[in-house]
Amino acid sequence: MSYHPENELLKRYATGEIDSGHGVAVASHIDSCSHCRKIVADFEEEAAEELVAAGSEGTLTGSDLEIVFDNMLEDIMTLDEDFSEPKSRKPALVKVNGKSFRVPSALTPLVERMGEWRSYGGKVFTSSIDLNEDCRVSLLYISQGVQVPQHTHKGFESTLVLHGRFSDEKGTYSQGDFIREDSRTKHSPQTPPDQDCLCLSILTEPMIFTQGVARIFNRFGKGMYP
């Protein structure tokens, strides 16, 4: 695992200030990444210390502190003793293109909200997940030996690799890797000839195709969601 969420995103996860799509993506990543679990634990400890300090300065009432500490105690009681070891959970099951994939249990609420799979030429499949939020969350399956047309992004694109691997102009990404791109990126993801790939994709704005005939999709809503 070579690619991780930025600290800013990990902090938002630790403090509960993250949207549902990114929340489950980060939860799935840290389930198998002790490095990022350690960072999240540090941010949680820092947030707890700030609450204690705010209480001692009188900016929180006694009832506020009671609620905060009750919630903290409940969280502590459900934590593993050693954050470097992942919790034992039952993974969710995703079926696409005649195959079945087990994905992290943190994705179970999303799997239960999956829409029908849409196929693009029998090579790329997407299933949109309705979370009633501004960003577009979907599962993306790319068959082996497929290249996605080059594109950029109006907003952010976050990708969590759930199975297999793919590469683009910047590197190769494998299971567990978390990648975040923005309008500064132009890339053309592709899978190797012998390997398919399943990803969780989060887009805050449509993607914009920058080469070839695929640019015609830019005319519909000034971009396209997968």
Automatic annotation (TrEMBL):
Which Gene3D superfamilies does the UniProt record give? Anti-sigma factor, zinc-finger domain, Jelly Rolls
Q: Return the Pfam families for the record.
A: Cupin_7
Q: Which SUPFAM superfamilies match?
A: RmlC-like cupins
User: Which NCBIfam families does the entry mention?
Assistant: anti_sig_ChrR
Going by the entry's taxonomy, the superkingdom of the source organism is recorded as: Bacteria
- ChrR-like cupin domain spans which residues? 137-200
In Swiss-Prot or TrEMBL terms, this protein is called Anti-ECFsigma factor, ChrR
